[in-house]
Every structure is written in structure tokens, then in C-alpha cells.
Records
---
Amino acid sequence: MIQENPAGIETRLDPITLQVMTNAIYSVADEMVAALVCTAYSTNIKDRRDCSGAIFTRSGQLVAQGEVGTPLHLGVMLPAVRTALRSVPPEALDPDDDIILNTPYQKVRVILTM
Amino acid sequence: MAIDVESARRAIHQEVAVPLGLFLEQAAEGVIRVINSVMAKAIRRLSVEKGYDPRDFTLISFGGGGPLHAAKLATDLQIPRVLVPFAPGVSSALGLLTADFRHDYVRTILSKASLTHVDQLIKCLADLWAAAAAQMNREHVDTEGITFLPSLDMRYLGQGYSLQIRFTLAELADWKTLGPLVSRFHDSHRAAYSYSDELAETEIVNVRLAAIGQLSKPNFSQLPETTEDTVSAVKGSRNAYIDGKFETVCVYERSKLMAGSRIQGPAIVEQVDSTTLILQGQLGRTDEFGNLMIILEDQQ
């Protein structure tokens, strides 16, 4: 679905490819939420679905937010991810690393590596 | 049904191609690409929510239009094979007439696995078994031939969603503890969500028993075997726009395919109730009952 482009990322996409990519990236975000809800212990997650899944670029730009979840989080996701990336630059992150923070406007408190 | 190609061209041109600045065929293929990506998204989400990876399955494609999309959906979702039944347009009706009787029985017990005894499960399943046998008896299904499929809905204590853990009545009779079921649950959880917690308490939510009363099976006629190529089933060729370019694609008549027929993609297979598209690099193979299996390039 997504074609490799060795020369780098294309800056212009045709409208069809854009829509196809949009659906694919949204489905990743939706899958994240589905897995989180199905495995959650917290009533806030498993019953109220008070959670969101989203895909960001390395520089902290929002690409897609899952359709299942809480639209309200749109406002806090952006500063939360940017705060996290300020404290832990993307090049310091390894696959499977998690960042946990509960103060989105301040420094990251805990970094947990699985 | 008569199809007006010129009207279709005009509509796509005016409504899609011109506003988006695309060629006619680009626009038409774009419509298909977008709808395919929406279907792929739905398949992924429904599978993941149930804890299944679509890559472990065969995509069964039916309905009049399904087989037009299936080969591309399988490619995008990395599903290794597509099964197109011999009459995809009437598969649901055929299933309605020939499917076995099935009744599902469920009892909620909400019990920690560590505090549940095998005997409790045996007793519970015996009750469900008796209810199933009585109902099948009322429906005049031969009770000798009933298949029973027991399972438990299990989760880690505190979770809201459970996974279905299957076992057989014979296995259960052999087990002294619920240990094997608990370890089967950990395995399922790991397979579905990539982790398990062996130290956590597990909970049994429901005890389930599916009872399947078998009806006599219809006798489908078998197709003659062939080792020859499929030239005799070719009814022509067509200039088709696939993946951004025109190419000449062989058109096959489905009813002329025999057991063992092989079709190399790209190909179009037409039949009275549906049309199947096989893509470049994919292989179509017919079995003795006329089912068409499309095998993806990296699976051949």
C-alpha cells in the first residue's frame, strides 16, 4: 500500500494516495486503542474508553488520532508529546521504549524501558 | 443487467477526474483504491479487537462484488490466500440451506481460576449439555451426531474484555487442575496482545458450550481433473487499467475451469453471478469442487 521511495519522502501526494495513506494510518491508531481497551484494568479505559491513540512524527506533529477514544484529548496530546520529546529526544528512543508522564506541561518524570 | 459504459465514463470524468485534476482511468482506479483502503481498515480493526491477526487467515470472498476486491485486500493486509467459492453470488443462500444446526449455551460464573475446581466446570458443562441435547431433540436433529465445543471466556482479574479459550470435554476429564487452561489463556493473551502476566490472577467469566447438530451434507458434484493448461477456458482478452497502467489481461470463463486448473495473474475470471480479479504475480487454482483459491506471490 505504501510504496518505498529510496530517494526520500515525496513532498507531493496525489489525492487518491493521500486518502489511502490516511485510512491506513488511522487504522494503526484505531488498532492501538482497540488493544489498549481490550487489555485495560482501569474502568476509565475498559468501560468509558477515556483514552486515545495517535501517530506523531519525530518532531511531534500529529499525523492521525484514532476515531475510537476521546476527542477531548486532541487538545492535550500535542503538548504532552512535545514535552516528552523535549525531555527524551527521538534519537535517544529505542523500539519498545515507553514514556510515561502525568504532567503534560512539565518535565517527564518517569521513563520506563520494557 | 445492461451497463452503460459511456454514462459511467462521463460520471467519473465530471465528478471525480476533473475536480481532482486526474485522468479518467486514474480517477476510476482511485475510487477503487479508496474503497479498498476503507475495507482493509475495517478488516484490521475487527480482527484486532477480537485478538486475531489477519495474516493467519484465508480471506473468503463472496457476494457479487467481493471477488473484484479480494486479491488487492489480501495483498494490502498480507493475507496469504483468498478463497472464492464456486458460486460467490449465492454463497449466503447456499449456506442458509446447508449449514448445520448450532446452538450456543453460556453460563456466567465470574470465578477466580485459582478458586475454581475442574469438577465445577464438568458439572456446569453437563447442565449445558443436557439443555442442548433436549433442544436438538425437539428439533428432530439426530442427537448421536451432535458435536460439542466447550470453551471458557477468561481474562486477567480486573480486565473488562475476555479471550475465548477452547478445550475438549475429553481434555477436561483428564485434568486435575485448571493449570492447563490458565496456561492456554496466557498463551492466547500473548498471541493477541504481545504480552502475558503469569503472576496475575485469572478469572473465568463464562462457561460456553456450542452444540452442532449435523445435517446430511449436500452432494456437490466434482469437476473433472485436468493437467492441461487453461487455454480452453479463455474466452478473450481485455485492455484493463491496473496499478496505474493499461495492460492486456486474459479473461477466463469460470464454468470452464476444471479441478487443478491454474491461472497466472493478471487475469479476470467471469461467471454468471460474479467476477474475480487476480493480480500480477498471483496464482489462481481450482479445486475439485470448483472453489478458486488465489495464492499470493510470496506464498507459492
---
Amino acid sequence: MNPSGETIAVAILLLVTIAGYALFAGADLGGGIWDLLAGGDKRGAAPREEIDTSVTPVWEGNHVWIIFGLVVFWTGFPSAFSAVMIALFVPLALSLLGIVLRGVGFAFRHEAERLPTKRLYGAMFAASSLMTPFFLGTAVGAVATGAVPANPGGNIFSAWTSLTAIVTGLLFVATCAYIAGVYLVADCDRRGRPDMARYFRRRSLAAGLVAGVLAAVNLVLLSESAPNLWDRLFGPALPAVVVSVVGGIAALLLLRGDRPNLLRGAAALAVVGVVAGWGVAQYPWVLPGALTLAQSSAPVAAQLSLFAVLGLAALFVLPGFVWLYWLQQHEMLQQSHPPPTPTAATAAENRLPAGNRSAVTIRPAPTRHPVLERALIALVVTGVVRALVRHFFPGRNRRG
Amino acid sequence: VSASLQVLAEGDIPARTQMGASLGFHIIFACFGIAFPTVFLIAEWVGIRRRDEVALVLAQRWSKVAAVIFAVGAVSGTVLSYELGLLWPGLMGRYGSAFGIPFAIEGIWFFVEAIFTGVYLYGWGRLAPWAHWWSGVPIAVAGLLGALSVVSANSWMNQPSGFTLQNGRVASVDPWAVIFNRATPFETPHMVLAAYMVVGFVVSGVYAVGLLRGRRDRYHRLGFLIPFWVGAVCAPLQVLMGDILARAVANQQPIKFAAMELVDNTQRGVTEWLGGIYWNGEVYFGIGIPYLDSILVGFSPNTEVIGWNSVPPELRPPLANLLHWAFDIMVGIGFALMALGAWQAWVWKFRREVLSTRWFLIPAALAGFASIVAMEFGWIVTEVGRQPWVVYGLLLTRDAVTTAGGVPVTLAATILIYGVLTATSIVVPWHMGRRWRAQGVAGAAEDTVQTPYGPPPARTEESRA
């Protein structure tokens, strides 16, 4: 049975969410990895500050992608979602732990005043930035190799500890670091920090090479562990794979140059190509060998409502999101302050004794609100009348 | 002891405990997401309209605290969406296509809230005053709509509707009927009012402590009054709404209601018990008001109230006494908060001042904690009261729980992390407050407190070098 058009559309939506998470939140996670590798307090101060400036204003908006992904997954393919959640309980719980620690570390490290607390929260943020992509990667590897059955009885450790799954996890980590490095190069260039741009250029080049090698190793492993996937990767999914490889190589070459937007585009293309290739290669399965898209799909109305939600999102969220990014990219998200308080005014105010009547009100408030009063009286009267009527003339709706 | 521990570690108990802990934690932060924007927007409105600098300073500081709280709420909300799958795959696998829709809609409002919070925080002093105020309005509206979406998902668990089943699978879905199920119109306003009360009384409680310590300046009086009004206005509405909701529960989920009111056998002229312990068919130590329960349910002493004996024991909620006490304490706190608000309103009407007596300020300082307790107990009533069902009448909780091992481990981690998180979420705003107090109102221009949403303070040339 071939999946319906709506089912394919939901599957594409799911892939888009995954790609969105990889491109936006992946970059933030990668920022955490570079934070981790930046070295001691002194040496790492400059790169940490750049990472912080780039990630801070947008991290929560980016974080919402994974919530969206979960929602699309469980609404669109409920039975597959439930199978994945049971079989891959351990890596998913660990990735969640990473998300929690990371969010907490991030939220509070700006508030921490003393260096040791700052360090603690910073370390929490950085270490958990490794955890989340790695364990999400092993989960993806487990699904791609068809290690998740349709009705798992419990945890399946072998599913996500296979060599392919582990390499996929490492690939995710390297990719996050690579994407983050590329974005940071562009950010530093724009902010006029050529030294930091050079710093991140070297590092993203290294991360890109590592990611490339890991991807190649993963492909070789897939030929053993998931022959079907491998066949389709070099069949219908070949264009996506080619796009990804070309994007990756182009990004590595562009790193030396001076075209930040092109560089970002090429790096994004490499990631999007991988996600798209994975999707096409897995078609028509949602859990390869166990559950097809058609078998697992939700009723049409649920799928359509997902698209209605998407429409709403485009209407409400997209403009705001674009605006936020525009502000951030133009370095306009800087804190400024309300106009200074005229000191004399409040000081005089504060000298007044506590019980002073005029102290709180500046403008004499109206003592009567005729409209409100009438509305309230009307509400109470109708309520009482209604209750009385229902008490004395028991209507058809009354129980007992 | 080890045998009883083993019982506790089996079946759905660890998963239910973990879900309860996560939800009980998140809901406090969710309250701030729903209602805090309104409170700081009121302060800003007062500030702009009356050219009141103190109100503006309050609004700006509150918005910074809100940013920290939102960030924690975003994380704990993510935990909940994960846990829906990790702990309850049976629920999501069977009903995900219906149950998931309200969550998808909630995602939008969450996005909107996150984006405009960033803009609002960044916009202080940059946008024109009214433009800045309007940039905060979407946060408040998104909070309300988000509450509607999530609470409608919970209402759906109480009154599932909007789908048809075929061979145990959801065959068709009516999204509109899923969202606006029979319980939504009752649960949503109750929760929204609860959120406004929690935020109003918690924030005013902070300033009540300041007033108690003798900081009687305008900053503290205004900081107390604005949120206190919000809570005080909502309290009587909440008592009214709670009464309506209780009648709806008696109608829609009679067994839950029976446990709340300690009704064992279906009968007429039922006594309303205030407090009391049910044991072997008798209620001990309670204050019984004859006929009141029947009158509350159907406005007549003859109204029949369904008792829990009408269903087999395995379909009754556990711990009827717990539910009864949670319900009674919630109602009691509701009335007490209403009285507190009325007292201040009475004094305000004649004397236009904040009550300065300890008899008022100490309860006012505790009102925030009390309103959180009331809200948590309300959730205990609705969630434990629905047991043993996860989807009322359709799916048992024990059939929805995950078959994966390891829940006790994640439960321990959850409790540990949330304990630390709770402590931090209290300590950090407290530190912010201390710094602000050191600065004074006049020093607001040099405010250096940073927030996780990021607008970092303008970088000086020295830090760049």
C-alpha cells in the first residue's frame, strides 16, 4: 500500500523539522561544544564571549524545533512514535537530560555572580551540548538501521549501541560543531573580529574534515548494517547525497574566502542534503523493515490539522522569527535602559510617611464606575432570578 | 520495607510519580508564562499613562525576572513533551493523532511567546513607549491561547471526544471537537484564573515581605498593589468558576466527584463534609452539613449524587481521603484569598491606602505560597481523581505506561534535578532583587542584570580589546 499524498507531506514536514533542529539548534549545541573546547578561564574568554553573543538571543526560539518535531511525530505517526519511545528509552532519556542541563546552565550562568558558580553552569552548558546531539544521533542511527521493531517489549540496548548508531552519534556531534563554527566565522567577520574569525575558521575546517570522514565511515558501515538503505542512498536518494557532498566540499573551500552568506548556505546545504537523503532512502518505511509510513499514519483529519497549524505558524511565527533574526544579525539586540528616573521625584516620594493618603494615587481615581456597577448588579440579579426560577419551576434539564 | 518498596517500583507507580513531579513543577512556571506578562504590562501601562517612573522600573524588573522563569519553563515544558512519549507510549501510540493536535497548536503560541519576549526585553528604551507596550501584548495573548491549548488536551483526557475508533485505532479525527471537548469550557477558565492568582499573590507576596520589613516606600507599595489587585480580582471569579466546574465534574465524571466529596453510595440529600476521614462507610472528624452537597450539585436537597460504589473497586480512584482533603484545602484557600482581597478592597475604597497592619501583611506574604498549594491540589484532584483511567472510560493508565525498564532511574534523576532547579529558580530572582535594592530606584539606568533571552548589555570598548 502506497502512502497517501497527505502522509508523504507529513513525513516531509517531519524531515523539515529535523533539518530545522539540526541547522538552528544544532548550531547552538555546536557553540556549546566549542565553549567546552575553548580552554581555561583566560584563554577561552574571547571565544566564549563570541559564542555567547551569537547564541544567547536565539537559543530558545531554536530549541522549540525539537518540541515541534515531537508533536509532528506523535500526531503524524503515533504507532511509530510509541515504538521508538519504548525501544530507545535510554538514549532519548539521556538526550533529554542533556537538554535540561543545557537549558538550566544557560539560563542561570548569566545570573551567576561568582566565578566558581559561573564555571559550574558554564561546564554544565558545555558538557550537555555534547550529550544531546550524540544520543539523538544514536537514536537516529538505530531507526535508520531498522533496529526498532513495530512492537518492542522494552528497552533495546543493541539497537543504539551498534557500531553504525555510535558512529552516527559521533557524526551528529561533529556536524553540530562544524555548523556552529561556520556560523561563528560569519558572525565574527561581521562584528569586526578577524582574529576570532580566524580562530573559528581553523576549528570549523577541522570539524568539517572530521564530519566528512565520519560520514564516509558511516556510509561504509551502512552497506553492512542496512543494505536496503545503502541501495536506496545510491539509487533514488543519490541527488540528495550529491548535493550534500558538493555543499560540504564547497563550504570547506569557502571557509578560506570572504563570502559569509555563501559559506553558511553551503554548510546548510550539506546538512539538509543528509536529512533529505536519509528520508528518501528510508521511503516507504518509517521504521525500516517494521512499519511503513502508510501503516503508521494518522487519520487524514489529523494530518490536515497539522498543516492548518503550519499555516497558523507561518502567519504568526514566521514574521516574528524573521524579525528576531534580522535584529540579531544586525547587532541590534543589545540591552538598553529606560530613561533615567528623576532622582529628586522618587526621593521626595519616599520621604512621605507610610500611611499618607496621597502617596499612592497620582491622579485621583474615580470613586464610582457607573457602567461596571450596573453590569455587576445586572449579573447578580439575573443569576439570582435564574437560580430561583430553576428552583421553583424545575425544568427539563434538572437532575434528581 | 523492601517488599513495599518493590511494590512501589512496579507497575505504573514510578511513571505516574515522575509525570506528577514534572507536571507539578512545570505548572508553577507555566502560570508565570500565562499571567506574568499581563502583570508587567499593567505596571508599564500605569507607568506610561500616569508618567510614573516607579511603575516603569517595576515593569522592567518584572520582565527580567519573567525571562529567567520563562527559560526554566521552556526546559521543563520540553521535559513534559518528551515524557508523554517516554512514559506513556501506550497513550501516544493509540491516541496521539487526536491528543497531539492541541499540543501542535500550543507550539505556535510558545514560539510567539519566546520571540516577543526577546523583542520586549530588547525594546526597553529603544521603542517608543506605547509601541513597546504593544510589543508585549502578544506575549500575554499567546500565554492565554497556549493555556487554552494545553488545558484542552488535559480536558480531552477527562472527556475524550472528536474521534472514532476502528479495531482499537483512531480511524477519524475531528480536531475542533478534540479541542473544544465537554470539559474545556470549565477547565480552561479555572486554570487561567488560577495562573493569574498564583502570579498576582506570589509577586505581591514578595513586596509584602518588603513592607513587613519596614520598606514602606512607593516602590514597594506599588509593587505590592499592582499584582495584588490582579489576584484579588481573580479570587472571587475563581470561587464562582470553581463552583461551576465542580457541578460539571459531578455531571461528567461522577466517580471523581464522589471521591472529592466522600460519597460512597448513590443517594439523595447528601451531606457535605468539610474535612473528615472516610473509613469503612463512616466519615470521622469531619464537619457535616446536611443536604448541602445535594444542594450544591443540583440546587435542591433532593438531588441524587452518584457514589463510588456504583462502579467496581478496580475502577475507583485510589485514596479518596487524599482527594477529599486536596479538594477541601483548595476551596478553603480560595475563600481565604477572596477574603484577603476583599479586606484590602474595602480599605482602599474608603482610605486609598495599602493596609499596613501585620494582620494583613503576614497573610498577604503567605498568599503566594497558599495559591500555589491550592493550584497543585487542584491538579491532584483532577489527575488522581481520573485514575485508574488515563483517557477517561477508554484507556487505563496501566495499559498506557511504557514497557521499557529504567523509569525508577529517570524518576530519581527527575526529583534530583527539579529539586536543584526549584532552589535555583528561587535563589536567582532573590539575588536579582538584592542587586536591585543595592542600586535603588534611581540607579535603574545602570541596571546590569542579564537575562537568558539575551539582549546582552551593550559591550564596552574595554571588553572588546
---
Amino acid sequence: MLESTLAALQVLFTPSGAAFLFVGVVIGLLFGVMPGLGGPTAIALLMPLTFTMQSNHAMALIGGIMGAVSAGGSISAILLNTPGTAPNAATCFDGYPLAQQGKAGLAIGAAATASTLGGLIGAVVLVAVIPVMKSIVLLFGPPEFFMLAIMGLSAIALSTGGQFLRGLIAGLIGLMLSFVGYNAVSGGVRFTLNIEYLWDGIPLVPALTGLFAISEMIALSVSGGTIVNNKAAGNVTSVIDGVAAVFKHWKTLLQGSAIGTLIGAVPGLGGTVAAFLAYTAAMQISKHPETFGKGNIEGVIGPESANNAKDGGALIPTLAFGVPGSAEMAVFLGVLVLHGLDPGPMLLIEHEGVIFSLILALSASCIIATLITLTFARYLVMITLIDVHVLVPLVIAVSLVGVYALQETMGDVVTAGIFGLLGYLMMRFRFPRVTLVIALILGEIAERSFFQSLNMSNGDWTIFFTRLPALILLAITIGCLTFPAVQAMRKRPQQPARAE
Amino acid sequence: MAAVNKRDLGAGLFVLGIGVAFLLWSQTYPPRMSAMPKLVGWVTIVLALIDIAAQFDTPLGRMLRRIAGLEIAGRGNQTENSADAPWRLLIAAVLWVVGYIAGIYLVGFLAATPIYIFLYMALHGRKPKRVSALTAIVATAAIWFTFEYLFHYPLYPGWLFGGQ
């Protein structure tokens, strides 16, 4: 392992290796910042270009992209309330309110630092678990996937702050939307209104772009002015404060990184689920959960650390079994195959050096992306002072072009528009958008895993309660759901005492 | 018995309608296909009824508002709290987006984008026409350069120019 690491280091620190890494980081940042694009698009775009490269150089380029995308995405999430990539959506909830309060520098500093440290933690975990990858991934069968989805759905109740009932309702609407399209359980299509475009279900990226980018632009268009509410808010705080905040909230960082690595390693869930779970988990351990959604820096640190940590986790099933943990990994799988590197246990034995090149590139790109972000954050935050009547048409245009570029279908553009209106109406009537998004992502996984589990057990429901991993997940779910109630009951008697 | 907030009551009734419609729609599918959707439909109806009941100034309503968190709803950030904006402004904002998407469909991105940006800035934002035109041209050029020239993404040409 040491030999492979040293060999990978030698490749990375050659002029050409470093250049490919730097180019990958810059491309990753650009694709991350631009709403609607993201890692899968960037890797898919560059995949043909890597064909003539050495495998190590290709890994440097792709690793650079993977490590930098989430850092770029956090910038637009914080400054525009527009997640550059889907996993950055959770960063919007507290990053954008911080920007509105004139603390964009603080949020960007924290996001960049948390993203880097999360990425490094994910990479370290990846190196540590490479020898035991197989047994970890094999622990998860359909009952565990179902329980994992239920655990994610239970986070709905926790993530809504003071809007518990409407959060649940929004989650149910998200579930309804997740049922649209082809149903893998029965082999038929549902709720498509005979529209062929909907057979594959509601595409996530256009829906997220609509819910978070377009709806926000509609709101800004209505309110006018600038993103920052007042002139005092225009005083940008130092990004160094954000860096310090991450170390101050080290528990949130470690928790987010652990969630990111774990969820990233579970095929099919991916970074978006990891980021939202990290957000709700950060709320759970925070001393001020009531300030979440209003500009709590922990609400930025949690999801951003999970965002980059998930890459290390997602590489586990991708490399060991050829099972991609996310869309980004699915495209990355194509790069591996293109270079004659067949994923599977033999990959680690025969091409260990290439794998370590990737891990090192991933780690180095996290650091470089953070340095670039921290250096230019002062200039980037000026976006918040632009008149919204200039910003709104530009963001809407770039968002819709980005959405179209993904699949080159006008249906995606229309979907983004419809979800934009839905998102605005949800804001207007105080239905949290986050719960709809979580349910939209997890609905299909929950239903499929549920029926697969029952098929496995010939209809015996006890399958969910007789397997240890499923039981552990169930216990965590129950704990998540009951903890806030218990906490509220413990706090209630203290309130009159304080008043006196 | 008066509703505390008619707008919130309307939202509750709307959700109830969605729940009922979704449940009825679910009935049209085979049992295995509709099991989960039916469950979701029923739960939506129950929660919508609770939401509606919470909007009335009765002991039950007050208790439900306290439990459901409806009394502190709306203390979020500015954009989550844009409930008081006049409908006239909202309709105008939505129409700009709808108009742009319709424009893309008809004449494609490269023609619709500069027209949309110019008109939005000049008419809605009341920016100087020269600034609006310059912004529109620069933004469209940047989009073309990034997506079509640099990354070879063919942008939709518009229905009038052969787009499908």
C-alpha cells in the first residue's frame, strides 16, 4: 500500500500530473458554480478527452473534478440560494440567510473548510476500509435499504423546525411525485397523464433547479432590491471567521463527514440524501436548533462536510463491485472501463497505483478548491449586492440552459418552470421545500426495497426486524423521531421558571 | 367560529383536494401498484384535515396549532417568508418565466435569451436600455461560448427553426 501511495504521489507531483489536477479542479469549480450542471456532467464531458491520457493522469483530472464540484456548488447555494449541484441544496437553508445578513464570507469560509476536511476524512476512510469493503457493502440487502429510506424519511419530521405539520404534508406531496413514472415493482407506469416524458419519473435536477433556483428568482423578482437586505449587511465578514467556525463546531464536522461517507457508500442514495441527513443531524446536536433555517453556521458545516466526504464513501462500492453509489460514480465507472480498468476486487490488486492516484487527486483537489474559493470569496460575495433585476434574468437563463444541457430535452426546461412556481407557492404558504425534496428522492427507494424485502421473505413482515443491520437502522429511526419530543418535554417545565 | 387565517385555511383545503384526487387516481391502478400511493393519499387527507382544524379559533384549533408548530410558522428567512407580496407582482414575475420558456420553445435559447434579458431589465427592472442591451448581449454570448462552443452542447434551436 505504501509503495502504491508513493508511486501515486510521484505521478501527482510531476508537472503534467499537477497540471491535470489543477485543470480538473478549475473545471469542477466552474461546473459546481453553474446551477443545473455538476460532477456527472463535467466528468461525462471530459470522459472522451481522457481516452488518450495515461490512467494516472486521467485519475488526476477526474479526481480534481470530483473534489471541487461541491465547493463550487456551495458558492451559488450560499450567494444565490441556487444549489450549483443537487447535494448543495441543503446548504441553501442556512447559507443563504447568512448571505442575506451580510455574512456570506463567513458561510463561504465555513463551507469551503468543511468541504475540504469532509473530503479528506472521506478519503482516509476509503483507504482504511479498502481491505474490508466487500463485507461492508454485502451487509446491505433490500430490508436495510428500506429501513435506510425510512430513516431518511423520518428526518422529514426533524428538518422542518417550527413547521412540523406542513413539513409532513410537503413530504407526502414529495412522495406522490416520487410515484410518477415507471414502477419497477409492478412493471407498469403510474400517474403520467399519458405524457411519455414522465415515464422515467420526475427528473431530479430540473425539479431541484425549479424548487430552489427559479422559485427564488420569482421571489426576488417580487421583492426587488438586492439579495442583501440592507446596506449594513453589505459589510462582508472575513472568510477566516468561517474557517474558525468549522473548528469550533468540530462535532458537526465529524458527524457530517461520517454521514457522508456512510451514505455515499450505499449505492443509490448519494450525496443529496447525505447532505440532508447531515443537515438534520447537525440540527439535532446543535445548542440552537431553533435558529436553523435562519442563518446557523452549523447548518452549512454539516451538509458541506457530508458533501465531499460522500465521494470517498461512494468510491467503495464503485471500485469494489462496480456498483456506483451515485450518478457521478456511474459516469466515473465509464472512465474506468474506458481505460481498461474493470471495477471489482481484482482492480485493487492489479491496479492499486491507479486507485491511489485517484484518492490522492481527490484529497489534493479538495485543498486546492478550498484555497481558490477562500482567495476569491471576497469578490464572489459582491454578487449579493447586485440589483435583483439584473441578477434574476441572468440566473434564470443560465439555470434553464444548464437544465436543458443535461438531457437536451425541452421537457426538463418546462419541469424546472413548473417546479419553480410550486416552490414559490410553497414559500408563500409556508410549506418547507426541503421535506418535499427528501421524499422525492427516497420515495422510489422505499417502495422498491419494501416489495423486494417481502418477495425475499415470501410476504413475511418480520424480515424487517430479524436482521441486525435493519434493526440498528430502525433503532436509529425511532431515536431520531422520539428525541425531539423527549427534548421538548424536558424543556417545557423550565420555561415558566425562566419567566419568573 | 372564524378562521384565524383565511389564506392558510385555503392552503389546507387545497391540500385536502390534492389528497382526495390522488387517492381516487390511485384506485385506478392494480392493488400492488397502488398500495403505497393509497397509503400516502389517506395520510395526506388526515394531515390536511388536522391543518384545516388548526386554522379555527377553538380550543382544539389552538391545541393543534401549538402541537403542529403553525403558530411559529413563518419565522424563517426572508424568502421563505414572502407570504405578503401582492398577487399582482407574483403573477407578473411568473409571467416573465413563462414567457421566457415559451420564447425558448418557439425561437430557441440563443434568440429568446437576449430578448428576455433585455425586456426584463428594461421594462420590469426599469434599467437604462443601453445597459439592458449590453447585459443581454454579453450574457447570451457567454452562454453560447460556454455551452455550444466550449463544451459542444447543442442548445435548443426553437420549434420555428426545426427544434423538436
